[in-house]
Design goal:
heterodimer; A: 293 residues; alpha/beta; Rossmann fold; four-stranded antiparallel β-sheet; globular; B: 524 residues; mainly alpha; 2 domains; two-stranded antiparallel ribbon; two-stranded parallel ribbon; 22 helices; 4 strands
């Protein structure tokens, strides 16, 4: 099972280049696709989900070119878009039955699978309620369920935890981890903690380019010895912001505890263990500095 | 609220700009310009009395264009503008507006003004076209701007204001918000065109002001002639002689009647504010709520619904799927059919069943010429969802990433549409079959294939149900109901039916649907 993205670019209109020469090789496991807003994550997801075509470059699923045979990927695809709608007059079961038919599942398998999925996403109690009356989080869970209908080998989820409460968020992360065994899961988000909890691989994307692709441990190693904690008076916080890349601040009795990233720390700082959020910010700042240079 | 006029202006301006930058505006504008061209080239003429038309002076050209404008724009314009509240609701802009001190009446009046501005801008284009027409057709000079433009200003603009305010009122009323309102407006429009008998307040479209004036002018010229006739005809052959008409004598009574119609429009806009829900989610979902109350007596508000979290399974697993079924297409057709009829009220089925029984029980001729017409207009809102359901509900990304979606899903959808036609018209087919009326049975088959093909093509290409609802209802009224040859897709009589034409059209529309869907799907 292999997904190959080779020098894919996507241009919108004359001036907007959403993706630039993006290349990535993926095997089974969860890829966390991290990047700031407008980095090109959703464009990449849409291309992989066959919703839109790349301007240039190729995508291959197990050696089959997507452009030559899009159904090769569609038959094994589960896709949860960032924004999607539902049919408000249908209830959860009816909506999933319809999508199962569109995806070509037979009745018996579909019914069994729908029961399983509604249980997994915790919607069994409201299965007969029209979707028009669902809350945002409940709709998102229906989206997750529909993505898993056809037992996908390639699961693409774009900002899946948006609108979920903390309990459901944990539940979804666990679900992704459990299902990732023999699948390629691409999890696009800007919430680092979602990726931290689930991803076996991380791809950082910024301004349509791949900034880094590594295991979480490798990214953390790259930032080891560069994360510091510094206690400053509130009045000096703005000056510190101007001078250093700050990943977090917290006010306490002795002043503001500033978490900063620097190769050469200011005097009075103590070294702290890096988090994935530190690594993410560090990579992005390096990328921006390189682009500016 | 501070500066209400500025708020009114800015709201109307934003809505106006949003609308005129859309393709649908350009389409209607193109239609209006084509209409002007048809008038200039005498493709459309007004015939008065026994074959008379007016000399093409300023008054006649102004009247001719104003009549076309009043009839065409008051119908199409209504469907084009009627979506401001829906759009503000789907874009969530409405919720931002609702959180401001803006009074409801300001919102409804601003939207009405915007609707009017959109329609009035089209009238302005036609006024310019009228001027160009007289300049290009020097049948009578000089050009009198008052005679040329007064019908636009005094007839068309009030009509546009009323059409705009009705569009907004319909949007605020839950029953009239959707397709039912679109169909009801069509009949209201038909009634308004035919109904006005005097030049007073019952003359909504203002056309009778013009007909009365021209007929009076002709009566002076030809006292013994048949002056009562006044018709808008296609083709110059209908009029073979001319008479001079110098325009309407705008008496204070006539002016007051027109102004009253404009005031009525304003009154309707104010009335709309009474029903306007101000984007209150509880009232927006009132229908869903009623449905839910029936199904779930305990939980009556989704926001307050207490969910019962289930324990997280130790490890999530999915049982393997079996081999893909052999009856996948049949299943998809049934799913599409279910989706089409889901949400219809019980009384819809009662009427449909009543019509079906009437088809079986009526003599063949009555079934074909009468009951079938009703049976095939009744599901107009079912067919109108075809091809546009995905864009209306934003499910494109879910559906269009499925395998072989263009041909499999589209074919299933079309088959479901044909099934609706077959099921609602099967009584007539039975009557035709038992009376061995093969030509009419062929016409029936062509109609059953043509209607869903038209719905699918218009739905796919417009992304909206409104276009089909407007065109189909109008076509049904002009063609099958009046048994107009070549436009009668139902085949009400032998003389008017053209099964070959409609089978060909059905095939062409199906092809157009496939092309339209291929355009929507990246890898078709």
């Amino acid at each position: 099972m292999k997904l190959t993205i080779d020098r894919v670019s996507k241009r919108y209109g004359a001036n907007t280049l959403a993706l630039q020469d993006f290349s990535l090789d993926l095997g089974s496991g969860i890829l966390g696709l991290l990047g700031p807003n407008g980095a090109g994550k959703t464009t990449l997801m849409s291309i992989l989900a066959t919703i839109t075509k790349p301007t240039s470059g190729t995508i291959q699923w197990n050696g089959t070119d997507l452009a030559a045979d899009p159904n090769a990927i569609r038959s094994v695809l589960g896709y949860l878009p960032q924004d999607f709608g539902v049919y408000p007059n249908l209830n959860a079961v009816e909506f999933l039955e319809y999508l199962a038919a569109v995806k070509g599942l037979d009745s018996a398998s579909a019914r069994r699978r729908i029961d399983e999925l509604l249980n997994l996403v915790n919607l069994t109690d409201v299965r007969k309620r029209p979707l028009g009356g669902y809350s945002g989080g409940m709709r998102q869970r229906i989206g997750i369920a529909q993505a898993l209908l056809n037992d996908p080998k390639l699961l693409i989820v774009d900002e899946p935890t948006a609108g979920l409460d903390p309990e459901e968020r944990v539940r979804f992360r666990n679900l992704l981890s459990d299902l990732s065994g023999d699948r390629i899961v691409i999890l696009s988000t800007h919430i680092v903690s979602d990726v931290e909890a689930t991803a076996t691989d991380i791809a950082l994307i910024a301004q349509g380019r791949l900034v880094a692709h590594a295991a979480p441990e490798e990214l953390l190693r790259a930032v080891e010895g560069k994360v510091w904690e510094w206690v400053v008076p509130s009045s000096e916080l703005n000056a510190a912001r101007q001078q250093f890349l700050i990943s977090n601040t917290s006010r306490r009795g002795d002043g503001v505890h500033v978490r900063l990233l620097a190769s050469q720390p200011p005097p009075g700082t103590t070294s702290v263990a890096p988090t994935l959020e530190d690594a993410y910010l560090f990579c992005l700042s390096q990328h921006r500095a390189g682009a500016a240079a | 609220m501070k500066h209400p006029w500025r708020v009114l202006y800015q709201m109307a301006k934003a809505d106006f700009l949003e609308r005129v930058r859309r393709y649908s505006f350009l389409l209607i504008l193109a239609g209006a310009l084509y209409m002007a061209y048809a008038v200039i080239t005498e493709k459309v003429v007004v015939v008065v009395g026994d074959g008379y038309r007016g000399v093409y002076n300023s008054a006649w050209i102004g009247m001719l264009m104003a009549i076309c404008c009043s009839t065409f724009l008051s119908l199409c314009g209504f469907y084009v503008v009627k979506n401001a509240i829906e759009r503000d609701s789907t874009t969530r802009v409405g919720r931002i507006l609702a959180a401001t001190p803006m009074p409801k009446v300001l919102y409804t009046v601003a939207k009405t003004v915007s609707y009017f501005a959109v329609l009035a801008s089209m009238v302005l284009v036609l006024m310019a076209a009228a001027l160009a027409m007289q300049w290009l057709r020097p049948e009578a000079r000089p050009i009198s701007l008052w005679q040329l433009w007064s019908p636009f200003l005094l007839i068309d603009l009030p009509v546009m204001f009323v059409a705009g305010s009705l569009a907004l009122l319909f949007e605020t009323l839950p029953v009239l918000r959707g397709g039912v309102g679109n169909v009801i407006y069509f009949f209201l429009w038909t009634f308004a065109l035919a109904g006005g008998a005097t030049t007073g307040m019952d003359d909504a479209t203002g056309i009778h002001v013009l007909t009365t004036s021209t007929q009076q002018a002709l009566a002076r010229l030809d006292p013994g002639g048949k002056t009562k006739n006044f018709s808008l005809s296609i083709g110059p052959g209908h009029a073979w002689r001319t008479f001079l008409w110098n325009g309407v004598d705008w008496t204070p009574r006539l002016l007051a009647a027109r102004l009253l119609w404009a005031a009525t429009g304003l009154g309707l806009a104010v009335l709309a504010s009474v029903f306007f829900h101000r984007f209150d989610p509880a009232r927006e979902k009132i229908r869903d709520k009623k449905l839910k109350e029936k199904r779930n007596a305990v939980v009556d508000d989704p926001a307050l619904a207490i969910e019962h979290p289930q324990p997280t399974p130790a490890r999530a697993t999915l049982t393997p799927l079996g081999a893909r079924g052999q009856n996948r297409f049949t299943r998809l057709v049934l799913s599409e059919l279910f989706l089409m009829i889901k949400g219809l009220h019980w009384w819809w089925y009662v009427v449909a069943a009543g019509l079906l029984i009437a088809e079986f029980a009526s003599p063949t001729a009555q079934a074909r010429e009468g009951v079938l017409l009703a049976a095939w207009i009744w599901p107009v809102l079912v067919w109108s969802q075809m091809g546009c359901r995905e864009s209306r509900n934003a499910t494109q990304s879910l559906i269009f990433s499925a395998e072989r979606v263009v041909y499999r899903q589209l074919a299933a959808l079309w088959t479901a549409g044909v099934l609706v036609a077959l099921l609602t018209g099967v009584g007539t087919a039975f009557r035709l079959l038992t009376s061995l009326d093969w030509p009419q049975l062929a016409a029936w088959c062509a109609g059953a294939l043509f209607i869903p093909s038209l719905a699918l093509a218009l739905g796919v290409w417009s992304g909206s149900s409104k276009l089909f609802e407007a065109i189909y209802t109008m076509w049904w009224y002009v063609g099958p109901l009046h048994q107009l040859p070549s436009l009668d897709f139902v085949g009400g009589s032998r003389a008017s039916s053209s099964p070959g034409l409609y089978l060909t059209l059905a095939a062409a529309l199906l092809l157009a649907s496939c092309l339209g869907r291929r355009r929507q799907v990246a890898y078709a």
